[in-house]
Amino acid sequence: MQNISKHISYIKSYFNIINVSVIKENRYFFYKKNICLNKKEALYIKGKNGSGKTTLLRLAIGLKKFHEGSILWYNSYSHTRMFFLPNDSNLNFKDITLIPIIYEQTSHLKFLVNLLSKHINEKFEKLSTGEKKITQLSNLIIYPSPIWLLDEPESNLDEINQLKLKLAINLHLKNMGILFITTHKQNLYKYSIYL
């Protein structure tokens, strides 16, 4: 009876990882992991390299399969309204010249165009690692989503852009957003779990 009542209490939350287990190399990598978040909540995930921080994000977004358990978003199995930012500088698009076309369609992207203005016509591959990270983070503005999954988003950012990221995170949470973030920055931790 205790397992049933625990399961029911998770369903009352907005985003739920319920009794999820992952097997890797014939052993449990995660065993019956339970996480629930409501609107305006953030989960800061800490751990050593290889401890499963990125795996947890990939599970939540549906890019990694789990062996048992459930991942529910407001009582459904949909992953369509989440934004995942991996911790690398590879994007699906090769050229960021599409930004002015999008900008003409909506005024909400003024911030983005100002941020990227000197690189609008450059090839993405020519950008520095920090500039690539800024370009990735700009997708948070282009594709607004209630759930953000960010894998070490502050890496390779200068202090000014780390501050802008922190402000964007605070605004996201204030606007009823949910955040999963892996980070090494002490000042970003609010709620955290160790893996």
Automatic annotation (TrEMBL):
Gene3D superfamilies noted in UniProt: P-loop containing nucleotide triphosphate hydrolases (3.40.50.300)
Lineage top rank: taxon: Eukaryota
Coiled coil regions in record: none
Signal peptide: none
InterPro entries: ABC_transporter-like_ATP-bd, ABC_transptr_haem_export_CcmA, P-loop_NTPase
GO annotation, biological process: cytochrome complex assembly
A GO term for molecular function: ATP hydrolysis activity
Pfam families hit by this protein: ABC_tran (PF00005)
Keywords, sorted A to Z: ATP-binding, Cytochrome c-type biogenesis, Membrane, Mitochondrion, Nucleotide-binding, Translocase, Transport
Residues in ABC transporter domain copies: 34-153
Protein name: Cytochrome c1 ABC transporter ATP-binding subunit
Species this chain originates from: Cyanidiococcus yangmingshanensis
Lineage of the species this protein comes from: Eukaryota, Rhodophyta, Bangiophyceae, Cyanidiales, Cyanidiaceae
Gene that this polypeptide is encoded by: ccmA
